[in-house]
Amino acid sequence: MSRNIAAFLLVCIGLVMFLAIAELPLYGSPDTPVQNYVAKRYVSGALSDTGALNMVASIVIDYRAYDTLIETTVLFTSIIAVFLVLKKGTN
Amino acid sequence: MGDLLQRILQNYPYIFALALFGIGTFTVLTHSNLLKKVIGINIMEGSTYLFFIAAGNIRGGVAPIKDMVSQGDVVYVNPLPQALMLTGIVVSVSVTALSLALIMRLYKLYGTIDAKEIHRIRKEVRANGNSNQR
After folding, report:
1. What is the mean pLDDT, run by run of 10 residues, along chain B of 134 residues?
2. Which of the 8 DSSP states describes residue B68?
3. What is the CATH number of the domain that holds B41?
4. What interface predicted TM-score (ipTM) does this complex get?
């Protein structure tokens, strides 16, 4: 019963998303809003700015270094939480 | 109507992302096995990765790695969504690790990883008084 309700709700949400796909910009075209001046700046300036051949690496490690640093904190916090949860002796 | 269908078919990677999202959400909603719920969450995360990477793609583009050999007009795909999805993968791994650890604790406490079963056991314990509640 709850299975049918879940399926019905998912079909409703999926239909709305399905219609929204039609309004998205054309897949693979080079002049969508995603490919704006930010991406062009990264592609053209990554090598001279950071010296990295891999643009993804230059974004992760150099342009957004603080993002990566705090991301490490997320990983660290989750590891601490896992060790706390699995600690022996606490029942 | 035909125009609408044509536009949807041209954006076919988004349809795959939508299907994956639906499968993941259905798994989370209908299964009471907690491990299967975690698997469903991971499928949903995979659908968002697919959506972002597909949004940054350019037809005929190559991976955003500069090589000094090939000269000329090379179109690189957008490197920004790929870098953002790296962040997303880290968060997803953290969430998965923490939820799996919590499931291990639940299994030690209740001897089962079924959410409905755990609910029933908790109700019984509450009905028998709080003396043997851990």
Report:
1. 83 92 93 94 95 90 80 83 92 94 92 91 85 52
2. S
3. 1.10.287.3510
4. 0.86
